[in-house]
Write a sequence for this structure.
């Protein structure tokens, strides 16, 4: 069983995130990390690989060269190798362009299963898998909270606005998992030590035979026109609990006449 | 500007958010709707009462279940013959998948999570809150049709009392679009007390540590005379029933008081409770987004603060 996990390089959770006013793109100059939601997809892939007895988990990402370091976390968790598409021509890609590049990288892998995490924690994007499934012409199940694989097909339980659906699809297929599906493992020291030695390939757009006009801003069909301040809202009173937190809540509620 | 709105439906009812998007589009230009499903002809006509001038309907057994990929085929067919400037979707689990796959199919730009649309001359501008709603981005499109996903709960439906011309159409399906099949479909759960009418809601998230953490939530809710609610993460994990879930794929509430315990405040949760009158949150992570839209935020351990709070409130009552 070969499983590809699509993973994104995002700014560190504690980084002060900002959009660069001149490029109108997210400032990625600070420390980066594996998108935490993608760790759930990596975990699910490792479980599926180990249950099937053989196979491989390959991490596929599109991002700057230094994304490789962040992707090593997935290798340390137990993934087998990384394919990173890194090309200046892919920077600034929107959904249409990113899905084109990512699908081209995935086509080279011909995995039985393509997994995504539930969202990117920088852009809050939660749509890429559907565009990729479309380009690969594969069945799609999103928001999967429980995944079962057997006999060349999969069954996913997912939450919608109305409760839980159960959907089946033959493999190969594209699945986006929710963050409730599992608790991602922490990499072991041995895993971290071994991660550097695992295969890590960097590909260009040319390697993937993707035209310059299909990627980056040239291949994108949406634009960012302006950045504005959010509408004003009342200030938050934020306090650290020093043992008097409960009393302060009671006082606050009394003052707001909320009791 | 000519808009097409994808109108979703569930168990014989048009979905409220789709009708809200219909009302918004009607205020911006000419608006038509599309309804896809099986046995939906009559239901589709209903979109006329909410501002659609014309409703395209595809009634097909293969559209019986709410799966995205067959709907991409149907929309591609419809869009090939009609010159729409923009196609709008109210964001749901189903429509987000449809819109993104359609974007790839047509090579058309998709902007998502929009909270407003403005027409300036013949330009459409979308407004998108980004980075935890700390910056509002104006977004545009460089191709047609422009595809847009509108954040749930953004626009109110408006009954105009009009009627729509119903136009049936047919489409072929791609093989891969029919590969996934739904073996169980979700039904609205009706058991349990309604949290939508409660004046006070006490909600618990993953920070409670486990299902047993809800005992504290229930005790605090009792002391405040309120109802208990939960986040998607803990409902999916089986800690609390789905009927109590707040958020994009749960209930949207606006109580007088909302107390968030161990909830980080992801967008999925925020859209379900942000219009609450007073929001109080307790979370041990000082950087949790929930603090950005709370009136009072306490950085601390829920397991320490909540029992004390319950005790203080009970003492106050007696």
């Amino acid at each position: 069983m070969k499983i590809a996990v699509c993973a994104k390089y995002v700014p560190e959770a504690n980084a002060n995130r900002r959009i660069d006013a001149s490029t109108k793109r997210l400032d990625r100059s600070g420390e980066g990390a594996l998108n935490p939601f993608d760790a759930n997809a990596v975990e699910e892939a490792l479980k599926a690989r180990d249950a099937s007895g053989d196979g491989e988990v390959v991490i596929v990402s599109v991002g700057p060269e230094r994304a490789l370091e962040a992707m090593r976390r997935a290798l340390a968790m137990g993934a087998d190798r990384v394919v990173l598409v890194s090309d200046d021509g892919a920077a600034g890609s929107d959904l249409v362009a990113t899905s084109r590049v990512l699908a081209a990288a995935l086509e080279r892998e011909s995995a039985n299963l393509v997994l995504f995490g539930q969202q990117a924690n920088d852009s809050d994007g939660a749509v890429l898998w559907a565009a990729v499934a479309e380009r690969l012409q594969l069945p799609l199940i999103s928001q999967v909270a429980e995944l079962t694989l057997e006999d060349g097909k999969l069954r996913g339980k997912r939450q919608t606005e109305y409760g839980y659906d159960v959907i089946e699809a033959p493999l190969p297929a594209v699945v986006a998992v929710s963050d409730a599906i599992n608790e991602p493992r922490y990499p072991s020291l041995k895993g971290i030590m071994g991660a550097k030695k695992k295969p890590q390939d960097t590909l260009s757009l040319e390697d993937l035979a993707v035209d310059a006009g299909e990627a980056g801003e040239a291949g994108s069909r949406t634009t960012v026109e302006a950045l504005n301040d959010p509408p004003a809202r009342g200030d938050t009173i934020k306090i650290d609990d020093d043992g008097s937190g409960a009393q302060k809540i009671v006082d606050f509620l009394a003052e707001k006449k909320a009791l | 500007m000519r808009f097409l709105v994808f109108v979703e439906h569930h168990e014989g009812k048009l979905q409220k958010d789709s009708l809200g998007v219909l009302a918004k589009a009607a205020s911006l230009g000419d608006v038509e709707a599309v309804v896809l499903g099986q046995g939906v002809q009559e239901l589709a006509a209903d979109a006329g009462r909410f501002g659609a001038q014309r409703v395209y309907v595809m009634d097909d057994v293969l559209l019986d279940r709410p799966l995205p990929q067959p709907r991409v085929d149907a929309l591609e067919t419809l869009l090939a013959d009609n010159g729409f400037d923009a196609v709008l979707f109210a964001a749901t689990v189903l429509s987000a998948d449809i819109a993104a796959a359609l974007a790839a199919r047509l090579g058309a730009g998709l902007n998502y999570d929009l909270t407003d649309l403005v027409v300036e001359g013949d330009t459409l501008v979308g407004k998108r809150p980004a980075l935890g709603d700390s910056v509002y981005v104006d977004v545009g499109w460089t191709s047609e049709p422009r595809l847009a996903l509108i954040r749930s709960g953004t626009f109110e439906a408006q009954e105009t009392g009009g009627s729509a011309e119903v136009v049936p159409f047919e489409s072929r399906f791609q093989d891969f679009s029919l590969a996934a099949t739904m073996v169980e479909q979700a039904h609205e759960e009706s058991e349990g007390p309604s949290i939508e009418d409660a004046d006070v809601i006490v909600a618990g998230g993953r920070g409670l540590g486990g299902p047993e953490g809800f005992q504290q939530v229930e005790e605090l809710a009792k002391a405040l005379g309120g109802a208990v609610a939960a986040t998607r993460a803990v409902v999916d994990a089986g800690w609390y029933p789905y009927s109590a879930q707040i958020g994009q794929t749960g209930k949207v509430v606006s109580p007088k008081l909302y107390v968030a315990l161990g909830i980080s405040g992801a967008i999925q949760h925020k859209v379900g409770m942000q219009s609450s009158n007073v929001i109080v949150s307790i979370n041990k992570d000082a950087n949790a987004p929930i603090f950005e839209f709370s009136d009072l935020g306490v950085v601390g351990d829920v397991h320490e603060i909540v029992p004390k709070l319950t005790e203080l409130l009970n003492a106050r009552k007696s």
